[in-house]
Amino acid sequence: MDLIPSDMIQTIQVNKAVTPDMDADAIGGSVNLVTRTAPQGFRLSATGGSGTNTITGKRIINSFVLVGNRTENQKFGWMIGATINDNDFGSDNIEFEWDDSETDFVKEHDIRTYLVQRVRRSFSVNFDYKINNNNELYLKTLYNWRDDRENRYRLRYTDIEFNDAGVLTAQIRRQTKGGIGNDRNKDRRLEDQRMQNYTFGGNHLLGKLQIDWLTSFASASEEKLNQRNISFRVKDVPVNTKLSDTKFPVITPTNELVLSDYELKEITEENRFAEEKDYNAFLNLKLPITKGSIKFGARLRIKEKSRDNNFFEFEPSSRIFEDFSRLPLTDQTDSNYLAGSQYIAGQYVDPRYLGNLDLSDVTLFESTDVVDEYLEGNYEAEESVYGGYVMTTYNINGQFTILGGVRLESTEILATGNIVNFDDDGAFDSATTTTENNTYTNFLPSIHLKYNVNKNSSLRFAWTNTIARPNYIDIVPFRNITREEDEIKLGNPDLNPTTSMNFDLLGETYFKNIGILSGGVFYKKVDDFIYTSVSKTTDDSLGIGTTGFDAFTPLNGDNASIFGTEIAIQRQLDFLPGFLKNVSIYANYTFIDSNAKGVRNEDGDVRDDIDLPNTAPNMFNASLAYADKKLSFRLSANYSDAYIDEIGGNALEDRYYDEQFFLDFNAGFCNK
Fold it and tell me: Which of 58, 264, 444, 448 could pair covalently with 403 via S-S, beta carbons 3.0-4.6 A apart?
């Protein structure tokens, strides 16, 4: 979503309850982004803007241009659009890992400074041709390219413990993240993301038979080349702690450190590459019948995805790295650090120095391939989905409409991963590849009822069945066996897709002017939801001597239930006198109550009272706007409650996403 600029979007279609002619991979509904099409006549539009980021003090550049036209006979239309956004921003970040002991204690403490330049470019060319009144063709193309250049400075306190003298000590590390020093990376970690989509389709009318079809090819890639890190450390440093505020704990050295006390921990370089290709085709046919229609069609989707990473450590021969203070350094201490001035970043290796190191020179650096950093995550996967459906729409009396049908989707998966072994000393032992496949078929009926109370109000009910397929990495048959730590990580090619039976009841009324009032309730019964299990292996099922190991693997839970209510209003207050008639309001609120069953902890016991991950109990959006012929402004608020993000081996290890609140204000003036 972050790759597609909003300037390239013409319409956003939100379907809360999918119909049989839509893809079934949509438990919570579906969102369809419709790109811009050719205008009805000549159009030239251009915008430009700029701003400043308050953390970095650097500029923002944003521009968009669109040109399009249609021939005099209205048969052929074309549109060309291009946009660029260049944003040089930063973020201040603190992270902590807590230990569960007799008193809560911080095991690890990070102070991080991020400096990021994000450049997004998008280019689109669209055509449509109306052969005659019954036949038309269209071609849509979209190319998106995003560069993220990042420097990160991380101060880490780790190995926090009491020594034999009862003094609390820690290891302190100072790490610089950057990239190679060239015109492309610019001494920063460069994340190059690209996505392209080409769609060719048509709409036809043969007698009473309506036909629409589509073929498309899409590809996406993410490349991170020459991502470098250099880290220095000093051990056994006496530290002070302030842990009373659990959201903002502070750890500081008891005495001031000398930079020359730091020694080199590591120099690393990493390369990452992931690619996905997506082939799509569908055909829909629709025939009118008395008081309705019957529609049927077929769908084909083939996805291919691969990941190929590597990671190297470098041991320098030069003695200059033995003294941190002799290297080019940069001070990242900021009295306006957003998390608080009590967090003092200090000195780090200058990323320009890191970027200009010639790590390929064997006379200067000795390299080591560190397979445990990447090999388990490398994979190839192919997913093929074959679908078909039939549905009918019937209008009983002008007020009551029934839509019913069934969709059938068959899925074939082929995945290749790595089995990686490390010996009792933690050294790499062996690696082999393995391939597994899986197939499953889903029968998905649905019924939609709509009753028009009057011309402005309606009631809707939907019973639908939908699915959510596993993530690729979860179904890859990889194994990562670390005997030194008695730990094993496994993929699960036998995972079932998550299925959901959904019930939705919604009422809505439209105001005579622009506006709507709606409210509803919904219930979802979810089976085979997926979570990462953390457990002890009780037997050597793999035949490789892994009894009693900590095992991390994705599993299907039993079932979950989701109950929710929602209400929304959008209205221009044109019934008010004077300037107030130009005011408009918008607000919506959603409440969700969920419960997940069949989740086992690290001891094998079933856990109770767990919410389904990624279901925020409360969500609220609101805006207040004013617009007349010259002046406009909008104040918008967004709130999302805290929710469980990832299930751990026990309650302490569950990961939560904290509540969020955003407030935005914008204004404009046009003197026509």
Answer: 448
